Amino acid sequence: RQKLRVIKAAQSSKQAQNDGFVLEDVPHLTHFLPDLQSYPNPLQKSQAYAIVKNTFVSPEDVVAQNIVIQKDSPRGIHFRRAGPREKVYFKPEEVRACIVTCGGLCPGMNTVIREIVCGLNYMYDVQDILGIEEGYRGFYSKNTLKLSPKVVDDIHKRGGTFLRTSRGGHDTHKIVDNIQDRGINQVYIIGGDGTQRGAAVIYEEVKKRGLQVSVAGIPKTIDNDIAVIDKSFGFDTAVEEAQRAINAAHVEVLSVENGVGIVKLMGRYSGFIAMHATLASRDVDCCLIPESPFYLEGKGGLFNFIEERLKENGHLVIVIAEGAGQEYATADLNASADKDASGNQLLLDVGPWLSQKIKDYFTKVKKMAVNMKYIDPTYMIRAIPSNASDNIYCTLLAHSAVHGAMAGYTGFTVGPVSSRHAYIPIARVTERQNTVELTGRMWARVLSSTNQPSFVTPQDLIQDGVQKETVKEINK
Ligand code: ATP
Ligand code: MG
To answer: What ipTM, to 2 d.p.?
Structure first.
């Protein structure tokens, strides 16, 4: 096997020189435990899979990160395709799996838990599955919960996480001691960027100790800010629910004179929910996101825009992502920001701040009464169960994670890359955040749909180091 690996590495590096093919591979247990035995995948005998044309995914199958490339240009980064492998590295009766959820709530967490349990049990006949309660700290401060398809049967119909969650409390040594003491050999970790960083260090420690433990991350972020993957679970559900809040604001402002509706949506560093909800709803006059700084006063400022829209239509709706205008509000309020238990910067509540600023400006400066309607649907959105498409998506994520762990992959995150599910090295999804590209087409669609000021000029973008060509493109 070692020899084969060397030949393959040589082949792939030769190939890389030829056509710019790069494989960002995920670790495998055999990388640090070369003497591991492999076994035929029990799916071979499964009735459901017996009729599948190609039951198993070839370990050589890869997924391209960029599906649009120019002729003769480098093929770029690829990841291993997710799916069941012909050989597995765990005997089902020897598997002791555990599942943990960390960070904030997001629709679909329960579906992922349910489908990991059912996937392990129905596809691989794994009986021993433990739930770690209340996030990372639950490894060493709580008793475990025995999970079976019966226990998790209808949890996907509920919001939140069946296993509960927490922030902070990540003690790598204590967690891995516990994994070792309990004889756990598959760890499924559902959580956001912080959680995936935690999963990466757990994997490193497991590797250092030479344990036959597979560490699989399932990225959870309602903000859709995880890099590499196409979209995170719960995002569709969140956008759908956000639309309801926008609709309510719209109904309110339509019914009064000079109605100004403000809807604050999630998005600490990325404005995807605000951007997609704006595009979906069509009732939004202005969408403010963290990536695009805005200003209130002067020509081209928000106050001017509001005044014009009120004159034109008698009402307007503004959507603001929670991370938008943070620096502006911090300076304005002369505030200092705190941190949460996980070390994340706590944000100022920009919704009430913006509402007050607008109200003050129109009543005091313009001597004009506005009817302010402020809606913050954050907790309502986070708490709902996932919709149909997210439920299906969560099932695929959970199954990919189960197939990957059974096949002996470790230190990996699952997710769709260019519409195909892939195994991605954990570090790749935590090294940077996914943000809305101000020079991208989607943001241009928002600007043209709302007809709002862009606040940022092409010159600003040049100063920020964005290439001139891109700026030219958005100017077209
Ligand atoms: P979200 O931000 O979407 O709510 P998250 O996973 O980013 O989810 P956090 O509260 O930041 O939420 O982190 C969740 C868990 O991960 C916490 O228990 C925290 O201690 C742990 N964690 C965060 N960052 C790291 C890190 N760099 N190393 C180890 N553990 C970490
Ligand atoms: Mg986070």
So the answer is: 0.99
Counting atoms of ligand 1 from 1, which one is nearest the CA of 102? 14
Residue 436: Cβ within 10 Å count? 23
How does 248-257 read in b/e, with b if 16+ C-beta sit within 10 Å?
bbbebbeeee
DSSP-H helix ranges across 65-191: 109-118, 124, 138-141, 172-182
Query: Which residue, 258, 241, 382, 268, is CA-closest to 317?
Result: 258
Residue 88's pLDDT is what? Answer: 97
Q: What is the pLDDT of residues 269-302, one digit of tens each?
A: 999 999 999 999 999 999 999 999 999 998 889 9
Q: Which residue has the tokens 């241009």?
A: 444
| Ligand 1 atom closest to 196 (CA) | 6
In terms of DSSP H, where are the helices of 99-171?
Answer: 109-118, 124, 138-141
Using the mean position of ligand 2's atoms as its centre, give its distance from the Cα of residue 298 in Å: 35
Please name which of 12, 26, 132 lies closest in space to residue 80, comparing C-alpha atoms.
26
Terminal Cα-to-Cα distance of the chain (whole angstroms): 55
CA dist., res. 167 & res. 448, Å (int): 39
